Amino acid sequence: MNSPLRHVRPNILALKPYSTARDEFEGGDISVWLDANESPYENGVNRYPDPHQKQLKAHISRLKGIAENQIFVGGAGSDEAIDLVFRIFCEPGIDNAIAITPSYGVYQVAAATNNVELREVPLAEGYALPTEALLAAGDAHTKLLWICSPNNPTGNAFEISQLEELTDAFGGIVIVDEAYVDFSPKGSMLEVLHRHPNLIVLQTFSKAWGMAGLRLGMAFASPEISALFGRVKYPYNVNGPTQAEVMRRIEMGAASCIKEICEQRQMLAEALPNVSCIEKVFPSDANFFLVKVNNPDKVYAYLMKHGVIVRNRHRVFGCNGCLRLTIGTPEENKRLLKLLNEYK
Ligand SMILES: *Cc1c(COP(=O)(O)O)cnc(C)c1O
Predict the structure, then answer these.
(1) In whole angstroms, what is the distance from residue 278 CA to residue 228 CA?
(2) pTM for this structure?
(3) Ligand 1 near 77 CB (within 6 A)
(4) Could you tell me the distance, in angstroms and rounded to a whole number, from the CA of residue 77 to the centre of ligand 1?
(5) 273-299 pLDDT, tens per residue?
(6) Same domain assignment for residues 186 and 295
(7) What's the domain count of the chain?
(8) Cβ distance 323 to 153 under 8 Å?
(9) Closest ligand 1 atom, CA of 79?
């Protein structure tokens, strides 16, 4: 019984997925489509998109080196995959999940929406992975363990070896959210996915790929888990223009600004500690910095008054006094530094 399917809710295992008109069509030489109650008048979007996103998954498969039957794509970003993971594995009111804190706020919202208790375990000193505390937080009803790496809002990535150790030791499903992985020198869990049947890796086109407006998120897992995503997702969950546009941009290699952002990260890592209102700059493996300032609300309001908006994380657990600064263009970063240096 080592299959990850033993963690799945019985109703999900038993469920018969909705069969769309396009599922029942087996292929052939069709020129008249009267099966889906669509408008027959061609306008570019009058037809339903491919519910299985076959071409798009082929593109992602080539890009990531992961088989198509191990890929889920969601048209509401990775946030869609986060909600589906709770729905697939956690019985509302009974099962629970574990997450690190501080981390991405959507795990908390998705847990609450699904009436699942989320047990938050504080990061260790220096925002390190609290492996033992995470393993100790579970009980017989613990199904999920959420790790964000590089972590939002702290910016640091955990070592692959540590994440693998945790995945092997945890008696449930481990989800590693890699929204910022393209910026990280520490590598991706996708390289070891084949070794861990209980692992789900989340990635997105929203950050390094510059497509936040298209809302395309990805989940990679064993074929068994991926098939479950396919069963519970909304049938046409990624719209046609998004599928086409993401394929076009993958072909263009649209993630090409990563190098420039990493160079700007290096520049800021050297410049920010010299700013007098900044007390601490936390190391970043992502496209943002968490910095501790002497008066976060005042610095935040000052930047806003000068047309620069950052994220105030002062009231987030473990981030007392902190602002989160996204790395912008070289000109934007210069402007931010100038403003911070002029702050009194
Ligand atoms: C931005 C972000 C995402 C991505 O969200 P999308 O819904 O794909 O835009 C996921 N996880 C974390 C930690 C993030 O910061």
Answers:
(1) 47
(2) 0.96
(3) yes
(4) 7
(5) 999 999 999 999 999 999 999 999 999
(6) no
(7) 2
(8) no
(9) 7
